[in-house]
């Protein structure tokens, strides 16, 4: 994730590959929490989400995996009303911050200090960005794509292999106890997620079939210039009130590389944040248009997260 910092705001504009820790993904004394429910798939207006509860009564944890567009990256929410976060300030025991990874990976994905949330009946937890593939594999794919100036497609065989080998999801240093959620194979739930995402693209007026063989996705141009416009505009009223936000945004990018529509996905924010982020992105963002399998420009989309944080 390209992170552009300023005293009063943080803008996140692409997917992040966080550093991996050499520590073991799980120790023998970690809680092993079996499923308490089946997976539930949420067909939301602008996203798709998988939810499942784990653990017996008194040790229950809720896991949500949400995707705002097809791809590897997903928003992960982990909350519990039974297992408390480390403290009310959400300061973590380890200087490396919170770690999370899919088992059988032995190198936890370091997500630093994620945003703390209160999920009502399901208690407190955190929200973060994570990919289903190991961090090193994602980093290699990103480097090769950059060097060759192409979009690298993950083969169906590799995706099936990866999703079938997963047995759990480990969370370290985010709560008073470390635990592993025993998910079992992620192949069936992720297949259901992809079906939902295909329907989502059709709902947006996007050709899902053409997007499976893109030569190039929509790419931001001079992002450092127009993202600065967002950095410098923290809503004044929200700043005074001490309000923070994560704005998940989807832009429709036309064949000329202009953002023709802005949609805020699954908003949990004060509307002021959502409206300002869309207004500035529509005015200032510029793109190379997506190219279909024949090399012709095609209407596509681009998703990002604008994070407003104090300090």
From TrEMBL:
Residues 219-311 form the TonB C-terminal domain. Keywords: Membrane, Signal, Transmembrane, Transmembrane helix. It comes from Aurantiacibacter gilvus. Coiled coil: none annotated. Residues 1-25 form the signal peptide. This is TonB family protein. The keyword Signal applies. Its main location: membrane. It is found in: Membrane. Pfam families: TonB_C. InterPro entries: TonB/TolA_C, TonB_C. It is a single-pass membrane protein.
């Amino acid at each position: 994730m390209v992170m552009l910092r300023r005293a009063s705001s943080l803008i996140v504009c692409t997917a992040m590959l966080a550093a991996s820790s050499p520590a073991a993904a799980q120790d023998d004394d970690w809680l092993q929490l079996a499923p308490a429910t089946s997976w539930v798939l949420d067909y939301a207006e602008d996203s798709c989400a998988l939810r499942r509860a784990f653990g017996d009564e008194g040790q229950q944890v809720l896991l949500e995996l949400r995707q705002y567009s097809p791809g590897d990256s997903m928003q992960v929410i982990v909350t519990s009303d039974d297992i408390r976060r480390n403290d009310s300030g959400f300061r973590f025991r380890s200087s490396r911050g919170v770690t999370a990874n899919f088992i059988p990976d032995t190198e936890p994905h370091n997500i630093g200090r994620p945003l703390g949330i209160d999920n009502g009946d399901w208690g407190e937890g955190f929200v973060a960005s994570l990919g289903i593939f190991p961090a090193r594999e994602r980093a290699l794919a990103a480097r090769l794509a950059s060097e060759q100036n192409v979009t690298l497609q993950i083969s169906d065989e590799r995706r099936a292999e990866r999703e079938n080998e997963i047995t759990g999801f480990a969370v370290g240093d985010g709560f008073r106890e470390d635990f592993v959620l025993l998910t079992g194979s992620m192949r069936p739930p992720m297949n259901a997620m992809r079906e939902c995402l295909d329907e989502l693209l059709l709902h947006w007026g996007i050709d899902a079939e053409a997007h499976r063989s893109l030569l190039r996705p929509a790419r931001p141009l001079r992002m450092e210039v127009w993202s600065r416009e967002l950095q410098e505009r923290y809503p004044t009223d929200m700043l005074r009130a001490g309000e923070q936000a994560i704005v998940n945004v989807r832009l429709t990018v036309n064949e000329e590389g202009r953002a023709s529509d802005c949609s805020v996905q699954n908003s949990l924010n004060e509307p002021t944040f959502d409206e300002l982020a869309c207004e500035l992105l529509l005015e200032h963002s510029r793109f190379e248009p997506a190219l279909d399998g024949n090399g012709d420009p095609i209407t596509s989309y681009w998703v990002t997260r604008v994070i407003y944080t104090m300090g």
